[in-house]
Amino acid sequence: MFFKEKIGVQSVRLAIGMLGLIGAQAIAQEQPIVQRVEITGSAIKRIQREGALPVQVISKETIARTGATTVSDLVQKLPAMQGFTIEAIAAGTNSGGRTTASIHDLGGAYTLVLLNGRRMAPLEDSGSSVNLNSIPLSAVERVEVLTDGASALYGADAIAGVINFILKKNYQGVAIDAGYVHPEHEGGKSANVSVTAGFGDFDTNGYNVLMTYRHDEQEQLKAPQRRFAKTAYIPFEHDGVKYIYDRTSTSAAPANATVSFVNPAVNKAIGFNPFQKANGKCAELNVTYLSNDALTNFCSFDFAATVEIIPESKRDTFFTSGRIKLGENATAFADLSLGRFDLTARIAPNPVGVSIPKGTALYNQYIQPNLTPEQQTNATGAVAQFRAVDWGTRDSQTITDVRHLVAGVEAAAYGWDFNSAVTLSKYKINEKYDGGYMLNTEFRAMLTNRTFDPFAPAGSQTDATKQLIQNSLFKGSIREAYSDMKGFDVRGSREVFALPGGSASVAVGADYRELNQVLNASEAAKNGTIYAFSAPAEFDYTRDSTGAFAELAMPVLKNLEMTAAVRWDKYSAVKDARANREVGESQDASTYKLTARYSPTQQILLRASYGTGFRVANQSQIASPIVSAGVTSGSYVCPASLESENAGFCRPGRQQYDVKRGGNSQLNPEESEQYTLGFRIEPSNSVTFGADLWDVRMTNQVSSVSEVQAFGDPVKFRELFSTHINPATGEQKWAYLIAPINIGRSHYRGIDWDFTVGEKYSFGKFSLNVNGTHMLKANYTTPGTDNVWTDSMDRYGINDAVTFRNLARFTAALDSGKMVNSFTLNYRNGYTDAPATPYNVATKANITTPIRLEVPSYVTVDYQGKYFITNKWDVRLGIKNLMDKEPSLSLRTSSGHQVGYDPRYADTMGRTLYLNTSYTF
């Protein structure tokens, strides 16, 4: 492996040198003098044209043609994007509907998102990732996507590449935009309206002020409103065998009961459903649990019918920008972006444990009669596994507030172009519970007084009890958290000396940032006000970073340019204000990048790059204490090795186990080496074709052992198992720990390609654009190792995700003057699904050898027609998913509460009509 890696590095260095050698023998073509601008991936102002780095530019018209209503909707549909976080995971997590970008499946933590070339405050609970929902779409003029590492210019987090949102400026007039989205099937409607106004011409008046405001509303899409999502109890057929995929939950209504005995190593706990014992069948909304064994006879609750596919949300964004000339060669500027994102996610009613002590009325009525005389003697008590259906769904409202201010000066003096600015950026969330959670004192009183019966069917309570239920609902905040980033940067560029191809240019710069990340749990969350609730871990972390870079662009010949960049960064230790200590140590890293661009003719461009990168662990990964973090995604039989240690900590049968999460103060920076080799060919003014081979190797990656691995080899990963005491019942059971370590390695490689043709005819201009990504490698070491390799290429991997070998987008458009018609085809190849052990209908048991479904390729077709009513008023009418393609069956067990499909890889809305109109005054 070491020899192969060295060959790859030497090949790129040789390619860069070959470009120089070939270019020395070529004859240059004169280039016209045009305005120099700064392009993402370089700090040197230059002529805006194809450069040595692969930068995809998405124009304002292209954005509109996609029919995207949000920034995340736009970015996540690009073929180069894989491995991002979608809004739908808000159903079942505390994400607040965050969405991220991920270039080439390397992950959101390795993709740097910029606003007008500068960083934004990252997500409080996701390290360096930026929530795309905080960016105002109505203010975006274009998007530049650099699909190559850029740590040598931007510092940490840019290993996969950079997405730079360029916002509007020097706008005059007033524009009103409005849109409405209506799915053909029930649920999921949305609407938006925006107003943009600008006055002052910067070139003639010396100033310009721009303001834009946008409001969006999204209606919830409930799981029962789509055929593929309405149940967690799914019959299907595979290779001629009939199965049932059962993801229902043993937290049921009426409750299941688990009974414990003295000497649990000999007398193992048993489980049953008292209602089923008395009536011979499970109650409504429940089914017989298909993973029952000799010790259990549970009913299970079909929770999938109560969750959402898409949560309800409202979004308000405001952006204003001002620019004023301070003289002939200086400009002052300020950009302010404000946003509020209000999302309410609703998931299944609360699964809670209720302690049923021996000898109580509930025990005597429901538990004692279902035990043998010997069991009655040896029993120590019972726990009801209860689903609080009568309290309604768990409704979590998350309000996200974003403030991003950049103020600075651009100037030209002494041959230098300077740019310096101060950045104040804050990302804040407030998570509130608005339904489904119980007040501790009131709920316990209902149990004590027998005014509520957990073993009674849902909906059978008396009117008096229903009123008590309403009075026992908790409504209020559980946590507030924010990321507050303050920064200052300065950079300058100038021409320095003459070369045969023109003047060499240099850029130098430095920046300083301080990031404060805080989470405060509410008093209600901490003082036991909420029944069976573990408060989130509070923290107050601060870390600062300092960086400096230099970049040199050398036009060796008229048709050959070579660039070298180097950067140094230093990060302080994490200051933990709550513990009054510093965690970890200060860390520094140096990175560099070499690029070459060669044009043997005006129609051909060859380019190459080689560079290094790094990423520091986020503050929570370093400093977080061990805290409760929910339950496992899957259900597991208690491992034999843990059972032999203490069988009393085991759960009967196959069930979910508690999860804990913590940090590691010894984490070091992750490192990368990467290269690109590419070409662009333009045989005519109407045809362009290009491709870029890219390769990224990462070492020292922060990883953790997955739950599947831990439960699969509990002896090897024994240190990851401890116990957890349930705050509601006091029972102590085994729990699995997620903790980060520096051990992972990965190797990703692929080809980004595109083809564009445009021809004018008598009836209009026809254009075809095809672009895609072809993955060649997606290898990574299994969590907890640095030498056991696996991959997720076209199969559901142990990282609970798929890397698709081929993603492509085809857009054909006909512009006939007042009317523009376009069709877009989106392609994603098929893959091998997650392994699963479903219930075999014939044998009446869960299979022991996992099966893996083959999920077919997924293709959708979109249409849009744009009509110019006047030169100031246009209307767009479009249909997304024209063929009403549904998601395919998937037996995965991760990423939220949705069951039977994967919302990351398919359109869950179905055929959808949208209408947009824009009027300019």
From TrEMBL:
Residues 386-882 form the TonB-dependent receptor-like beta-barrel domain. It is a multi-pass membrane protein. The keyword Transmembrane applies. InterPro entries: Beta-barrel_TonB, Beta-barrel_TonB_sf, Plug_dom, Plug_dom_sf, TonB-dep_rcpt-like. Residues 49-162 form the TonB-dependent receptor plug domain. Its main location: membrane. GO terms for cellular component: cell outer membrane. It comes from the Bacteria. It is found in: Cell outer membrane. Pfam families: Plug, TonB_dep_Rec_b-barrel. Keywords: Cell outer membrane, Membrane, Receptor, TonB box, Transmembrane, Transmembrane beta strand, Transport. PANTHER family: PTHR47234, TONB-DEPENDENT RECEPTOR. Belongs to the TonB-dependent receptor family. This is TonB-dependent receptor.
